[in-house]
Amino acid sequence: MGSFFRKWWRLLAAVALLSVAIQFFVRPPAALSGRDALHAAGSLLFRPVYRGVDFVRQGGAEIWSHYIALVGVSRENERLRGEVAALRGKLQESRDSLLENHRLKDLLRFSGTIDKKTIGARVVGHDISPWFQSIFIDAGVEAGVERGMAVVSPAGGIGRVHKTYDGLSEVLLVTDGRSASDVIVERSRVRAIAEGIGGNLCRLKYVSPTQDVAVGDRILFSGFDGSMPKGVLLGTVVSVDRPREGLFQKVQVQCAVNVQAVEEVLVVLSRPSIPFRAGKW
Amino acid sequence: MVRHFLVLLAASYAGTAAGVWWLSGFVPWFLLPDLPFLSIVFAGLFLPGPIGFLAAIPPAVFREVTVSAPPWTFFLASMALYFFSREIGMRLFLRAEYFILSVVAGLLLAESFSVAVLMMLSGSRPFSFLWGMQEAVRIAWTGLIAVPLYMELSGRWRRVRE
Known about the structure:
A: Thrombin, subunit H, B: about 0% strand
């Protein structure tokens, strides 16, 4: 027996480690879900790299746009872009609020009066593993970012904060397979669960064949599950398949934001009403 | 041996940093070789004793930090990968190109398949035919990079020892 263990201890160690890893993967212990020493130390190791990359990118872009090419025009362009982005965000909120006005005249309280604080952050890296979809942003616990907070852009929702460190946070994208959010079809007010399926797509779950969903419909976050502010755009329906047999329609949604190419984001600094767990884990 | 450790540490750090922070969003994920993975497998196949084990720890930490999996899973899986590689290195390994390619590609395939199955069992369906093709490119590409890298490093260090 002793010689067996002496001979095969590496293989047994590998199997044991793998078993624990699978257990943590399927059911991560609550004690390990928050910040831990390994992740904090690891994020410190890469901080010089992402700061350097950010400095080079921003420095290069600023030198070019502010000093080499059209000094005044580039600044005005930058200001106008900011204004356009803000107006697009307001327009989006207004559209949903307008529909709400028509449906619920007596009960209307303009949702725009709820002032949620946000901070801007730059995307400094991406998860390059083939299985998961997330981005790294340059705002962390020092800026008040916490797990579960929503991350949006003027064009639509991007994801939720998954892990936070000093000066760095990891955002689980809405297109990740673990992301699930309560959403609503803007036109017909049908509710569903949007789940990421990779690429820049999500699918709507639990839409019965009798419910009215069509290609081109805009999908908004309902806000009921606390994952995103109400009315933020998720995307547009690109395909609807009504199987002859089966309980639900197969609906695919193209995200409004190209989550892999986004460069600047807003983190909504309000604690999620429901404790955050990354999808099914 | 310390030199081996430092070279592997530098390669895995530079590979992770380049992949996640520098090239991400610019080069598609399936064209970025998994250098921390290659460092762990190299430590298992070529570095005997405690130095190999120690050399496998930093790239395992880099993977844990940069992959958005549940906490500790990629560190533990990476250390399991080291022990599997060590077992292959001690019992089966032939120092030949085709063997390196098949070992690296086989281990990458096993890892990818395991994660995909686990995700599907937990209810996620983020995988498509296109994703499968891209993943095949990543595995082939990483395996092809491993062959000259391993041959060069192991040959050079063997000459130094002699």
